[in-house]
Amino acid sequence: MRRTIRDHVDRQAAERPDATYLIAPETGRTMTFRELQRASRRLSASLRTHGLRPSDKVALLMPNGFQTCRLFVGIMYGGYCVTPVNLLAQPSQLAYVLDHCDARLAFVSPDQQARFAEAMAMIDRPVDMVVCHPDIAEFIDGPADDEALPPVAPEDDALLMYTSGTTGKPKGVLLANRAVIAGGEYVTAVHSLTDADRVMAALPLYHINAQIVTATAPLVHGGSLVMPQRFSASTFWETVAAHRCTWINVVPTIIAYLLNGPTPQEKGLDISALRFCRSASAPLAPAHHRAFEEKFGVGIIETMGLTETAAPCFSNPLDPTRRKIGSPGQAFGNSARIVDADGQVLPAGQTGEIMIRGDNVMTCYYKNPEETARTLTADGWLHTGDLGHLDKDGFVFVTGRLKELIIKGGENIAPREIDEALLKHPALLEAAAVGIPDDNYGQEILACVVLKPDRHCTEVELREYCTDALGPYKTPKRFYFVDELPKGPSGKVQRLKLLDLVAPG
Q1: What pTM value is reported for the model?
Q2: Which domains does the chain have, with CATH numbers?
Q3: CA-CA distance, 3 to 245, in Å (whole number)?
Q4: Span 249-287, pLDDT tens digits
Q5: Which of 278, 269, 377, 358 is nearest to 318 (CA)?
């Protein structure tokens, strides 16, 4: 049974050596499975010359590109653990990740060198840097690719992803080879993907969605991916048409952008090869779901996944007559259940916490045994922190979150990080952030603030302040001035009650 990245790369290289795995649309450059295998073997040998041992962590600080994808797969192929770093991370968060993950080596694109150096100045241990362009054809020079590779097993570490937690510090989600492959197998099976399928991979490779759904799944089913350097609404349909993509993998934000543009038919493009659109990473507004299908004539399969489940854990069926708008679908590959506060399983229709168990579930939170024990049960069930219910057909409907994490456009944002930045403003006495529904991003950020006596500031001033402190993406969309924040008996802010303070609009 093939349960490692190496197993599947080697299988495709043996059975379909000249078949295309990757296409870079800007340059037209392609990579076959045989070329991927050779590059992966050379990379493994090169990493050994750097003194790395199996399961050592290798950071990846690079945007999408031909080289980036090759490195992402190749690091895992060699038995090492890849840590792709979110390029939207602030310097302090980047420093934390680089230090906490124990990376000994980082591949860094030229445009990220300054940020890497700034982060390294904040930590006390060295991390070797290899600078390489994300889209060059030439590979890192290394020994011949015929050297014996160290063995790699299904339970060996493959991927370490950092996701924001409610405490503000990112948590390292450690995924074994078996979890990464299980994610790719689930996507392959639920969408009936074959070696004839080609996905438009518009999401950044530092997202778990892109890593599993578009980079790993083709290793399982032998298909291919078209990976532009970045998403562009103006060229999206041209790329889909030019490369005869059979499916597209997007998030609700991209769907919102595409809805504002012309149809492929209006642009004279042929997208007849396209079978479906897959949406994930955030809830899709039913109005956008229906509008997209009506405008483009392409059915949407809404899904749900977590970093802790190697992306997919729920999916609507391929059969459009069985899909349910407003639901991310049924458990597929893994098992799901709804439990009450005491852990008792609830019947269909009753709301509780969603739990998942399967081969795709993480090994642990890296170097965080307390949080791991709170999240994983002894028999392998994962507490997702999401509230919802199952209907009589097993479709899940997500109604809220036990965790207070804000998920904006697929990005996890810790409310406390925003709280702490706002509390440094000299005019603010208290501040608390919370997620609010948004058709374009799934969620946007609302900040409720209490002014100090005799102090004054405006929403414009707070927005400018947050843009400097947090960056535009984490800056709240709305600020709401209140006399006091809702608190429980212990004095802790009851964050979800903030929504009761805010008038619609």
Answers
A1: 0.85
A2: 5-395 (3.40.50.12780), 406-501 (3.30.300.30)
A3: 27
A4: 999 889 988 998 999 999 999 999 999 999 998 778 888
A5: 278
